[in-house]
Amino acid sequence: MSEAREFKYVGTRSIRPDGFDKVTGRANYAADLDLPGMIWGRILRSPHAHARITRLDTTRAEALPGVMGVATFKDFPAVSTEEFQSGEGSTALNDLARNILADDKVLYHGHAVCAIAATSEALAEQALDLIDIEYDVLPPVMDVADAMKDDAPLLHEDMFTEGLEEKPSKPSNIALRFELKKGDIEQGFKEADLVIEREFYTPTVHQGYIEPHACTVRYDNAGTSMVYCSTQGHFDVRAATAKLLDMELGKIKVVPSEIGGGFGGKTTIYLEPVAMILSQKSGRPVKMVMDRDEVFMASGPGSATRNWVKIGAKKDGTLVAMQARLCYEAGAFPGSPMRPGVMTVFTPYDIENAFVEGYDVVVNKPKVAAYRAPGAPQSEFACEMLINEIARELDMDPIDLRLKNAAREGTQTLYGPKLKKVGLVECLEAVKASDHYRSALKENQGRGVAAGFWFNIGGPSSVSINMNPDGTAILIEGNPDIGGSRASMQLMAAETLQLPLDDVKPLVGDTDVLAYSGATGGSRTTFATGMATIQAAEDIVRQFKERAASTWNVTPEQVEYANGTVTNTAGDDSMTVAEICAGADRTGGHISGRGNINARGAGPSFAVHLADVECDAETGRCWVVRYTACQDAGKAIHPSYVEGQYQGGAAQGIGWALNEEYIYNEDGRLENPGFLDYRIPLASDLPMIETIIVEVPNDFHPFGVRGVGESGIIPPLAAVGDAVAGAAKINVTELPLSPPRVLKAIAEGASA
């Protein structure tokens, strides 16, 4: 990858191919499909956070005219404890099943117990009221610290902590302990002139996607069953549904709808197997759509955490020791993003001595799901808040402190590999040189800065390109388009094919059309599926040369290709792509290219954010008045969508820092399952988020791409948190910084 390389299409701001359909309402989302004979499915959910099901009788419900099917946990074939890849992590197959429909216990408020299919949605709701169910209510455990106590109520009597030297003698709510270390942590702290330690709390938060989970399913006993749903990974939906229902993989076709947001929350399944059971029993297609309360109560939020961090530094700002104890809530079943939290917490820094231990802990809340850089915002929030405190104690500029210790090419990471070429230093320097950083603050304002790191991943991706007889191309990718991947694939294909952009039409294919593709997540799509797109386009170009060579009776090496035209270097012959494709049936058949890869070499991405916050000391209300997001994109394939990723991550992180949290009562019932009471930022809450795109190319990608979807949500928690600390003159260790919490901290500071 040459940093000086110029591109014709890559790096331009093309019009989004799917934009017109979406702004005019023509695009089809998961709840938009209606099939002949379709009926509706609804789910009965637990009113308790923790209880045994002592009686479940659906007789009265099934007798209601119009009811056509009932599904309970017993309708799942025997499921094993084998680990199954689910979204951006893995989970035991039996846990996945028990989360979709409860077995003998309900483990959170809203846990699905039973499903009914009827000829109308209203009738299905009426039938739910006729289900006779009784519970033996148990005490819930709602906080990770309480769940880790020896005398805590147990969610699973058969769960023993893994990751210890010896298997414990009694069960626990701690599913896993995991650690990473390098150097000598004790010696490192002995060398420090300054040591600071703090404990930080982050709440349960939801991804806040606007489109709820929905699907329409048609079971076919003789042929192929169909699932139409909103998902980030339709191949994984197919695999999970087949596993849970003991169906043949090849007899399920999953069609991805347009997706109204996911952010990691749509990388797992909730409704699809239930709808398949109901369709099989009723012989009719079944549609299921969650309402907003259900989305909040029973789909996967992001983990709440209690994280302790300790950092030692010398007087000149050299960081010599970093230690952390990270405790993550997994929800009702094991599988929090604790591991990536452990792996990322200190990665922005080149540190010799580090030790991190993490705990995956079950509580009576919904099983967590991925949420943009899962696990990293929580752990890096704790680290970055402490870094800013150290800068103040040493009277150093917080960016200078980071520059002195910044990870760079050759840095040995705590989680294993040495870093290749990365752009953290460039991001820090860009923010320091910005007009924002050099501007003055007003009274009652504070400024915070924070860095963030995410690995990015590659993985399996499949793309096909079919050439039409007129020389235009149909590109089919296997990844649902969330952040503009169709536009990015179109740009990379046009660049490689050297065809006009409008001559490449990008589509998203279903599971019957392409080989397996991993989910749209992990900041992998533009990188990995982009590489598959380039491979498919190069396959097409190779065939252009071969077809021309056979026509001219020369070797392919004697044919050159440029700007949609092949030229015979041994003569004066030339042909356009349109001419080659028009005559393709005479030279071997119509032309198609394929890219099926397992991409390696994803480049890590670093981000640095800057936040100015103003605080009203009388009410405790804090709001962001200026914000800058800077991140290394490697190469911005479509700068507008890269900027959109930066701005979207910042907006979600700001909401996490200032307002968002699940609020439970003492019985474990969720009290704010809706956007009126769960307060995500509105446009009126935010300034225009300024962006700085840094481009330090990833040498493992033909165009230098690094994923950009996740690093941008990591710095806002600490950038805003530190800014609030400065504006309100309080210590910040808990999120969100809502008016009551800030006002209380101001009052406690004044009394102290």
Word description of this protein:
The structure is a single chain. By secondary structure, this protein is an alpha+beta fold. It contains 20 helices and 28 strands. The strands form seven sheets. A seven-stranded mixed sheet has the order 3-7-1-14-11-12-13. A five-stranded mixed sheet has the order 9-17-16-15-10. The chain is globular and about 90 Å long. The N and C termini lie far apart (58 Å).
Give a brief outline of the structure.
With about 750 residues, this protein is an alpha+beta fold. It has 20 helices and 28 strands.
Number of strands: 28
Briefly note the structural class of the backbone. alpha+beta
The appropriate CATH architecture of the largest domain is 2-Layer Sandwich
Q: In CATH terms, what is the fold-level topology of the largest domain?
A: Aldehyde Oxidoreductase, domain 4
* Average pLDDT, all residues: 97
Number of helices: 20
Instruction: Give the helix level as a range of percent.
Output: 25-40%
Fourth-level CATH superfamily of the largest domain: Aldehyde oxidase/xanthine dehydrogenase, molybdopterin binding domain
Which outline best applies?
globular
Number of domains: 3
